[in-house]
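Let us work through a complete example step by step.
Step 1: write down the sequence.
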Amino acid sequence: MRDGRIRRKVIACLLALLIFGSMRVAGQDATGVPRPFSAGEKLLFRIEWNPPWFLFFLPVMEAGEVEVQLVRELQYQGRKAIEIRFKAHSSGTFVNLVGIKVDDESVYISDAATFCTMEATEKIREGQRKRDINVIYLQDSNRLHIREVDLGVIPNKIRKDEYKEGIPKCVKDVFSALLSIRLRDFSLGMVEKTQVGNADRVKEVQSVVEKKEVVSTPMGRYESWRLNTVALLGSLFREGGQFRIWLTADERRLPVQFEAKVRLGKVTGKLKTANLPAPPEIRSREEEKIRNP
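Step 2: predict the structure and record it as tokens.
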């Protein structure tokens, strides 16, 4: 088995696909649509890797955990914004197989009304690969500025420090894109298109509501909407493939499972634990039920 090549592909698949989760701050969006989550929500997903058929001798194995947390509301360049923090850690048999430990952390600042990303900061720590990447979206001039520093070499090397033109007015990181989708009232066949950014790349991504089904997670069983997400202009993922996510069919529209079929098997994330403070609109209805059962 070509250990080095397979190891790099597994890492690329896992890291490109671990970064899906979503949060929402309490209140309403710019159109007045109520939001089903409030600040303080924290979701933890257990990640598993299912090898492809030609690696049939390898079992389904634990790959790590992903944590997504809405940290706070803040003012950013005179606008109300939200801060989302993401962490990914490899663990278990996966680490022993690929020989590389993953310990990544990212922070995203997005407009609280539109969910358009304003700044993204990523700290990539994957074995010997250590990169710090900062992207600022300059919406008024349809540009972005990216600065990428390689910390894995001595002295540290600046890989990128440049502006990129022709950027859409509203680009969303993967978390903010899922936020805007969760504001929708789902129906079978519904289609949503979004400009999604990753580093200095921007892809138009299409999400389709495929069906409603029950999924099992460490948190329990949930009736959920299944959405399939693909990039229309080339693959959003480095190794190709599609991404599916399951959102609960209740008013919370909680992400409880995701799955990515890629060239090197399948990556699955299931909700393990969740801190779910009720937003005002849900809390008031729950209190009303107590008073008037």
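Step 3: interpret the result. Residues 121 and 134 are 4 Å apart (CA to CA).
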